[in-house]
Amino acid sequence: MKIIRLVKEYFSTHFSAVFAFYISVAVFVVAHIFMKYLKNEYLFYLREKSYETEDAVMESMQRSLNSTLCELITTGSEVVTDKNLLDLTIEVDRAVKEGKNASQGYLNLHNALVGYNHLRFVSAMAIVGKDGLVCQYDRYKNSNSTIWGDGNQAYVEKMADDLFESIAEENLPRYMAHLYPYAYPDSKRKVFHVAYPLTGGVTGIRNIEYVMVISYSMSVFNEFLNTVEVPKVKYVRGFITDENDDILYYNDEAYWYEEPFLPTENDETTLISKPLNYFGWTANVIMDETEMKAHVDEIYQKGTVLYLIILVIYIVIVIFVMEHLLKPIRSISESLKEAEQGNYNSKIQIEGKNEIWQLAEEYNRMADAIEEKNHEISRKNEERLESLRQQYLAEKEALESQINAHFICNTLGCINYEAIEAGNFQVSVLIKKLSNILRYTFDQHCQTVYMFQELAWIDQYLYLQKNRYETVFDYEILFPDAYHYWACCKLMFQPFVENSILHGFAGLESEGFIRITGEGFGDWLKIVIEDNGCGMGREKATAVEEILRDKGHTTFVNQKKVGIGIRNVVTRMYMFYGEDLDITMETTAKGGTAFTFKIPLPKHGEE
Prior knowledge:
Layout: H1 2-13, H2 15-79, H3 83-97, H4 103-114, E1 122-129, E2 132-138, H5 153-168, E3 176-178, E4 191-197, E5 210-217, H6 222-228, E6 236-241, E7 247-249, E8 269-275, E9 282-288, H7 289-326, H8 329-340, H9 355-400, H10 405-421, H11 425-442, E10 448-450, H12 451-469, E11 473-478, E12 487-489, H13 494-504, E13 512-521, E14 524-531, H14 538-549, H15 565-577, E15 582-588, E16 592-600
Parallel strand pairs: 11-13
Antiparallel strand pairs: 1-2, 1-5, 3-4, 4-5, 6-7, 6-9, 8-9, 10-12, 13-14, 14-16, 15-16
Helix pairs in contact: 1-2, 2-6, 2-7, 3-4, 10-11, 11-12
């Protein structure tokens, strides 16, 4: 009762709902009658046209199937006239009977059978003598599904015996068809078999000693059966029957194991049969009018559902239009204009209960929420600005605390001259490389460099570290000259190399190795930095992978796990190369760590 009361109240306050209801009922009744009429007419038309169409298709299918079966039989007849095949068979059979090694002869005979692998629809070939199976070839080469195994060999020998017996009775057959076994042992590949006398081209077959049994795939019928069946519709089904009217083949595996899989012929079904010229087989099509009606009913139901959806859309449109015709839009429009100016304090004066005024009340609440949200955003912006001010002050203090770069480099130059005068050339080399590193690092005028400059810096850095750690590690840099002028951002590989030295070789006394290799792919460059150190622990590896996955945007990083070096350089590289850059890491315990960089041409760099 409460629901009924609520419905009545809703209709009493919503004129658009009443109008839409009556219009919708009228449209639904008319459309339902019309759809019923269309359903009956379509069923009659479908019944008549389906029979005419299938009969015409069956005529064409009969001719095509006869032609294809004739082609298969003729091809098999040509195979058994191969004199070389007969000679190889006699050679193998004679060697077996005399107790000699027939392996080479058997291999030659098998290869000869393999030579017929190109024949269409041939699944297997077997040569049988009067003493049993001589050789066989299976197209699928699967020992688990060989058709003439221990369990089936008696059948192929029986086929040969039947042909020998028929020849002895002077029936002189060109071939004999057999259906069993109707499939491979795995029951997935249906076949039928045709036995031919292996003549080797010799005229007269009364003294024949060998029989060729060719197993053809039943898929030969698929193409033809598909032409008579309506896709996704089950009221028309095509199938092949043998001379006993038993169902021989149907191209849908789902029906192979159903018994029966076709409806019984009665007043509700129509059977069209066309006899084939070979083996006493028949091509059939059966049309089930019960299924046909079910198909039409299914279409009708789908149409009804579609119509209901359209009707619902129609109702929504009617209500929407009526609302726009009835609602007092002036007060709402004035309030919206105020909101456009950023004034959300202007409220709509509520004057009724229907949906228009309910919408206005919702607008008032929304305006309050927006105003509150604006205050919250302003507060957060102030906090963010204050954070940026603090960051700026910290960076300013850090810059002011730096030692003058020119002073350091000039001082190192003086020390270098002193070392040369003292004859200590090794110290001179070390000082010179350190001075080069510092000049490259302190140069603030050029943050975009070429790849050869970056690699030269890394080479000097590794040279100094190698002298520092003595025998702990060695290194190698391999890079193609063609990509020396690939633009890059400065100091982008140093954190990864430093990670290998400080962490990868921790506790190592010798045999450490760092390798940097480059490989070009046109507009892409692949660089790998790898070491043979101890690898990363799970916690640290997870932190690094998170940085690479988030492209350096991770806000909080535990410096004890990773530090900020890798995060900063990843951020700079993505800013320089864009989203096409890809950085991956591989690390294993005691197996070392490798960073792989797939670097595109920078959008603002030089090639």
